[in-house]
Amino acid sequence: MKFLVILAALAINHFWDRERALPGDDWYRALTAWLHVRVQALSGASTVFVVAALLVPVLALLLLLALVQGAVLGLISFCLHVALLLCLFDPRNVRAWAAEYLRLWQAGDYEAAYLLLQERHTSVQLDGTDDLEALHRQCSRYLAGNSLQRLFAVLFWYLVAGPVGALVYYCLAQLQRNRMVDSEWQAARWASGLLFALEWLPARVLALTFSLAGDFDAGFACLRDALVDTVRSGESVVTDCALAATGAPARALLVQESDDEETLVIDMDGTGAGLSPAAMGAQIQSLLALIERSQVLWVAALALLAVFGSVT
Predict the structure, then answer these.
(1) Does residue 129 lie within any of the structural domains?
(2) N or C: which end of the chain has fewer CB atoms below 10 A?
(3) By residue range, what is the domain housing residue 148?
(4) Does residue 80 form part of some domain?
(5) How many domains, the chain?
(6) What is the strand order of the sheet 274-275 is part of?
């Protein structure tokens, strides 16, 4: 059933081309806020809070799955699995957001593009919108990291450990993002270590997928450097490998230092050669296409596993 659940969830996720009227992340933020207030007076409040924030949704899910097990020939259970994945995916329309970002970028309105990115990627901090290389890097990091945390890692742990595995990963990732409970997250270091461990393998599998779906030589060379790295975050690994796998921009978009004040040159490697803003926009488009192709590769791989009996 896992293959059909993933196939249905990915199809709905792809064709549901608007902001979704789903609970999104609000339900978990509300739950953690409620728990946060009630554990403050307890000894070891940080650990108690994180454990409760993981156990409560997992126990609720297990109860719900037990109640619907076998009902209507398993159809209700199937729909529940699909609905769970859709709720764990990013409910926001990333493709529409990226299209608007690229429109602003191509129009040269970099300040508006920066503000649009800051709405989604709240941790982005730049000294100014004149640093286009940093802005481009942050946008790439958001798109690649979001594809890992809100899509591929969720699918990976659903495949390995079922709905409970996907939910535990989601809860840990949300706790890391939630600034309201930042002190509790920092105190419960085992939780951040667990999240790092849960992201380590999916990040490398996704990086390999990017290599297969894009420029294999460049992408795999980047992956090889990060293969046994136990320090870098999964987001950093997939961002670097994704950008490498997009391939070199067209020669027409590569520019040299110029005395023409109308030509804006971004020196990316210190040699005088850099990427023009147009090349950066093209690379974002390539990154979006790479993520789409990677989903197709995952579906194809899961289909093969289903045929040979490794996925039920």
Answers:
(1) yes
(2) C
(3) 93-307
(4) no
(5) 1
(6) 254-255, 274-275, 266-267
